[in-house]
Amino acid sequence: MQSSGKSQTDSNSTIHEHVACPACGLLCDDLTVSRNASGILEVSPNTCARSVQFFQRPLVDTSPRIADKSSTLQEAIAKAAEILKKANQPLIAGLGTEVQGMRAVMQLADRTGATLDHMNSYSTLRNTLVVQNSGWMVTTLTEVRNRVDLLLIIGTDIVSYNPRFFERTIWNSETMFDQDTSKREVVYLGGRGLDTSQGISPAGVKPTVLECDIEQLPDVTAALRALIAGKQLQADSVADIPVAELAKLAERLQAAKYSVVTWISSAFDFPYAELTVQNITETVIKLNEKTRASGLPLGGSEGDYSVNQTSTWISGYPVRNSLQRGFPEYDPWQFDAERMLDNGETDALLWISCFQPEKTPPASAAPTIVIGHAAMQFEHEPDVFIPVGTPGLDHAGTMFRIDSSVTLPLAGLRKSALPSLAAVIDAIEAATQLD
Amino acid sequence: MLIKLTGGKVYDPAHQVDGKVTDIYIRDGRIVEGQHDGEKIDEEYDLRGKIVMAGAIDMHTHIGGGKVNIARMMLPEDHRGDLVAHTEHCRAGCGHAAPSTLTTGYRYAEMGYTAGFEPAMMPVNARQTHLEMGDTPIIDKGGYAMLGSDDFFLRMLTAKQDQNAINDYVAWTLHASQAIGIKVVNPGGINAFKFNQRALDLDELNTHYQVSPRDVLKALSRAVHELGVPHPLHVHGNNLGVPGNMETTLKTMGASEGFPMHLTHIQFHSYGTEGDRKFSSGAAAIAEALNKHKNISADVGQILFGQTVTASGDNMRQFANAGHGSPKKSVIMDIECDAGCGVVPFKYKDQNFVNALQWAIGLEIFLLMEDPWRIFLTTDHPNGAPFTSYPHLIRLLMDKSFRNDTFAKLNLDAQAMSTLSSIDREYSLYEIAIMTRAGAAKLVGLHDRGHLGVGAGADITVYTDQPDREAMFAKPDYVFKDGELVVRNGQVVKVTWGSTHTVRPEFDRGIEKDLKKYFDRYHTINMENFKVRDDEIAEGGRGKVIIQACEGRREKSE
Fold it and tell me: What is the ipTM of this complex?
């Protein structure tokens, strides 16, 4: 009962079914991963570019380094502990990890009085600030798959971030309520030159595309919100989109039975983007006075949602937060890692990136420890580098999906000598307690 | 390791012990008869003059899972008022309305509580709920899995599948989500909201499925009973918070057709429509009906004044109430064809007519309900008030003059609508021990908790007898968890990890064929990944899974 015949966590087996893929926030778990004779993993079917890159990256066997010299794991752990112990304002950033890794990090942060920031905070905060200011009405992927009749996509093609979104939740062949999914309507609002090909229905119906520059989304979303609220607009067009077109869109939203409005916060690359997210979510709330509509924030990578959730239940706060004063504090501006590094407000940086070797730390004068993917390469060699396994490849873990309601187990799929982040962090924490 | 607790005045209602001076012996975490011949006592506590009870059990408290974490994320301003620095034994966190998990565990233990049960664990969100409970130290915990608005179940009802199939699905859900009970929230209503229904009364039909809340309650209460699950179906009824909802509640008591049922936070469901403002107390009628229906139990969901946050699976009602939120913000979600949630911060004010009357209604129900074994002390944390207000609530129940003094300061119109000051009853220590220990353990199905008999887990709380019951219950002298001293003078002195209680009734695994098909066709996760494994709960030495017996298992339905 508790586990299926083919255990996900048994790294001896060569074929793993229903494997969850942490390469994007969708966390598709319909993958089969097999290991060939030379130890390379192959993923099939239901692949996408992201999952292929994630699973088929070869295992790299690196040893820890201190000042660019190979060391034992114990030596590297001792050195990392020494740096953190000496620091008055340690900063733990990057945070490319999952639940178990973040649990360990939170304990270390408590012990060492560290500040915490995730590499995607700039983006996730655009959503978090809205939740904290006004709240929202949102839905989850299985609801979308079975219920959506009108999908409004704001400022993104989705597929660059979540490649299988349409296949899995829009153009699925069956729904619970006998909807003909090919009749689902898709509207792209904002952005220019987006790849809208996946918005074409299986019956060949093209999506509505209303283009504008991404920086003009504040105006366009405010106009749509006003129209949904029944306001008259004096202008004929907003950011080159005729108001008549927006009015038509408003009518379609009001007529829909279960519309879903989606966005990806990292695509909103303009100042005060949280206000645009709020325009969207308040539009959704307004629609719900009469019909049903839901928001759906998409995107997600590097464990950002897992880190936020774990940090929130352990400290009360999502990132960016700090335990520097012995109790948790939350301040999206003050605890911005990049700002702190630029300002010299930290005297030790622990950078974590377990999923992608490309995510290296920003240049910094502070003593730097990197715990991360074994294939990481540095322009500036850190003081300590400890290679660790990747959750979902080298060891088990737990990950939150982008819609936050679903958490899935990640599997250990291959034999690896690399320790988990949690094991390394626990050892560093223990070492900081030694005199 | 043998510990002797010497000379305490013991209140152990499970064994009809009402304040008798008795020695208690603990060996290796369990209560034992006494010393073996020649066995030496390793530790002795002189408890002469002290009050001894089993550790308290909160049978309904929102301590983990998606909606609780949304509440935490939403309320940085509330955390700021109660930030908790790390100490020698405890890690940092925050308290008040939506406390962090670690602080939750410490503070429950510091109040003499040794177990708490998350009452609205969505099966699809069970993994997160267990993760959060896994970071909640010291206390034991468990969850009630939410069913009744999930599409799989409603499809079964519409297809008129037989009761045995429903029982199998209910049992499968208990296993998959590692739950100890089944909860239903606004029966069928969370689902109806997805079809844009805005209210659902007991006999109103879900427009798509053409089934009523009554159908849901009947099928689920029977399933829970026939599977032998000790905890009766845990029901958050329809029409929460709606004036006049007492009629729905009275009808709901009959809806299980004699099967046991627990009506939760009944205060929120005991409103009449009398008076100028069309809002009145239904407490007398509700208590009378509870007294009569021996198959029905209830917890109160007392409100207390101040800032809190309401977190519920009932997104239909939470959406309707979102406008009353303070500060004004809310998160409302439809979730995974499984259920939904709604989180709305709320500030109860003693000069507000409705809030003051809600306060009085809760207390009236406590005081008019005759059988303390069928009524339970809750604030529906944090919906009525944070759990840290329990000592205050206990004083209101035990101290009539304190209660009347408090009442006299409330909104005058509300005072005029309540009979509270005419009720003389004061709860005794024995009755408090029933409500918060013996009765709660029996109701949840914790066979070795909530009592001090030989063989029980040594979860024990020791208080100094004080006339100020709030002060007394706020700060126990000692708390033992599984025989280890975890709290002294109201402060944590040792951090342990409690266990997770579950039930696993037998069932026909053939149901998985239907479930697999359902998951593959309609869901976005694989059925196997839906199941929470034991090792996910017990990882890293954070406690273990305890399987409580389904002793009352009945023969299958004909």
Answer: 0.97
